[in-house]
Amino acid sequence: MQTTFPQLLIKHAAERPDAPAMREKEYGIWQAHSWSALALLVKHIAGGLHQMGLMRGEHMVVVGSNRPRLYATMLAAQSLGAIPVPLYQDAVGAECIFPINNADVRFAFAEDQEQVDKLLEIRGSCPLLSDIVFDDPRGLRNYSEPGLQSLDSLIETGKAFCSTHPDWYAAEVAKASPGDVAAMFFTSGTTGNPKGVVHTHNTLLDRARAGADFDKLTSGEEVLAYLPPAWIGQNIFSYAQWLACGYVVNCPESASTVMIDLKEVGPTYYFAPPRVFEGMLTTVMIRMEDAGTIKRGIFDYFMGVAKRVGPDRMDGKSIGPMQRLLYALGNVLVYGPLRNTLGFSRVRVAYTAGEAIGPDLFTFFRSIGINMKQLYGSTETAVFVCLQPDNQARADTVGVPIAGVQIKVADNGEIMVKSAGLLKEYYKNPTATAEVLTHDGWYHTSDAGFIDAQGHLKIIDRVKDVGRIKGGANEGAMFAPKYVENKLKFFSHIKEVVAYGDGREQVCVFINIDFDAVGNWAERRNLPYAGYTDLAQKPEVYQLIRECVEKVNADLSVDALLAGSQISRFLILHKELDADDGELTRTNKVRRGFIGDKYQPLVDALYSGKTEQFIETVVKFEDGRSGSVSATLKIGDCKTFAAVRAAA
Fold first, then answer.
1. Is the dihedral of CA 108, 111, 112, 117 positive or negative?
2. Is residue 395 helix, strand or coil?
3. H or E segment and range at residue 200
4. DSSP 413
5. Does the CA dihedral 347-348-351-357 come out positive or negative?
6. Residue 417, CA distances (Å) to 197, 205, 446, 447 in order
7. What angle do CA 422, 235, 177 make, to 5 degrees?
8. Which of 57-61, 468-472, 624-628, 642-646 has the lowest mean pLDDT?
């Protein structure tokens, strides 16, 4: 069944008008919006946008957090045949200039004063940007900028127009076809200007339905929408699948209340990148370290039981009556209360994607009864390429190809994908489009990997990042930086890692400690510190991190492919890597090349045998001011292990 997003909205409103479509939390109270009320709101916003001059095929920028009226504005734009372009709400103004100009944007929706100020600041660099519609009026009462108006006034204009043109809206929606462009998502631009990924109603809805069918999703699901709408991962879960399935999307009050709201909502279907699950586990471990001896003993004992039998239980395997009884007791005393504290009491499916997740982290959540699974996809594939069946969830794979997907491995090890969810094109960039789409419809993922004996896809790293050790005892050994980085990030005390080694004799890494986890560790040992920079350079912290690195080296030594990627030297950076400083993308992926150039003196120090190196770095604060952070960084050496040869 082919259709469009606005047509699906009208269908839900007709079939179950009073059922909740979305909820949002305001002033501590959850407010529900029914399908019929949402459909009427979309109709009125569409009328207002039409009166404002938004044309079919035109782009409209949408910037803000997950809110029903933001989603309604996207639907209203699509109702007119226009194309919403969500941008990251935490991006600085300068990052918005290229997307706005590239997409010839005249109209923008801004959630609040912060986003309005950002757009007004760059207006001089965006000559076509004429009209800005804002939702939250707080702080904007005395603004008198040309083209600036409230969403409420736009709705009133649209309501008046629709009352005098009763058949207009239905006719506009009927003009659209599934092959029309539905949305455009800009990539993070790690190697240059971001690219606009163009998707049609059909590409997004085809993959949304394929994912829903795979996990048997229904209109009874509850979802928490808390990640940026500009990230296609959030967009597919809380927009495309929302309209495909008709379930309820819940919008938290703010970023600071997400964990409280998660517990209140009790979602049945949940999605988060590994860093969110890492943060949850770190919080749990910090709390247990502060607990009393008896409570900590009970926790440790039953977590041992969970680790032994929990994953097998989740996979439907027999665990024996005694272990079943112990697990049931652990569920009453530990696992159940823990799931409730995390907000996962009702979760039926919990997905993670975006980066590799650590085996220990993955096992932890599955062992306490949460159906944690991995998926594989990208912006260009409308997310859903591979998913893990309920009884085949493994930490070292990303699942099996789902309905409508074909996968092959190129001669250089690159994963190639063909599906109905592939991008139509990169906007105004035919050269880049031709580089990723073959003439016969295969998409170059740029990921290196292979299909294992069970039919699961295993990702090693980005093709361009897979390198070789040059010289020394490991001459010619494979080096997969992301694989090494992720193994280190599995430790709760380590937040970010940047690994170098391609074309060099050895692997060296930069490390960001997790300030909360290491800070708690230091406080329990009466180790004083005066902030991140001071804590990061403590000898005791270096020893803690060295132990983590050497555990990773021991693991790598038994990996036939990557034994040569063991880490020889490391340093702990004096500041946390930050998207505002250009070191991370807006989806928190490390920009390895940029960091290497920015901190070239530190890279040189690692490879020249120095034991310390002074560095001074310019940083940007949230209010736009600049400052600097300086420190003399210690450089630590690590024990490496002889490669373990597999038995003949």
1. negative
2. coil
3. strand 196-200
4. S
5. positive
6. 16, 18, 11, 11
7. 55
8. 642-646
Q: What band does 131 get if pLDDT is binned at 50, 70 and 90?
A: very high
Cβ atoms 20, 33 nearer than 8 A? yes
91 lies in the same domain as 212: yes
Q: Are 497 and 562 in contact (CB under 8 A)?
A: no
CA distances from 428 to 180, 190, 424, 490 (A): 17, 18, 12, 40
Is pLDDT at 58 greater than 60 in this prediction? yes
The CATH number linked to 396 is 2.30.38.10
CA gap 85, 186 in Å, rounded: 8
3-state SS record for 38-80 = HHHHHHHHHHHHHHHCCCCCCEEEEECCCCHHHHHHHHHHHHC
**CATH classification at residue 203:** 3.40.50.12780
Long-range contacts of 315-324 (CB under 8 A, 24+ apart): 315/391, 315/392, 315/393, 316/391
Q: What pLDDT band is residue 540 in, cutting at 50, 70 and 90?
A: very high
A 10 A CB-CB count for 363 gives 17
pLDDT exceeds cutoff 50 at 648: no
CA distance 538 to 540: 5
The three-class DSSP label of residue 547 is helix
Coil, strand, or helix at residue 374? strand
pLDDT at residue 275 is higher than 50: yes
Q: Are residues 442 and 533 in the same domain?
A: no
Query: pTM of the entire structure?
Result: 0.84
Q: The domain containing residue 438 runs over which residues?
A: 374-463
At 646, is the pLDDT very low, low, confident or very high (cuts 50, 70, 90)? very low
- For 320, counting Cβ atoms within 10 Å of its Cβ (0-12 exposed, 13-18 middle, 19+ buried), the class is exposed
% of the chain beyond a pLDDT of 90: 77
Q: Are 502 and 508 in contact (CB under 8 A)?
A: no
The CA distance from 134 to 73, in Å, is 11
pLDDT category of residue 491 using cuts at 50, 70 and 90: confident
Q: What total number of domains does the chain contain?
A: 4
Q: Tokens 């569409």 map to which residue?
A: 46
H/E run at residue 107: strand 107-110
Answer whether 481's CB lies under 8 Å from 510's CB.
Answer: no
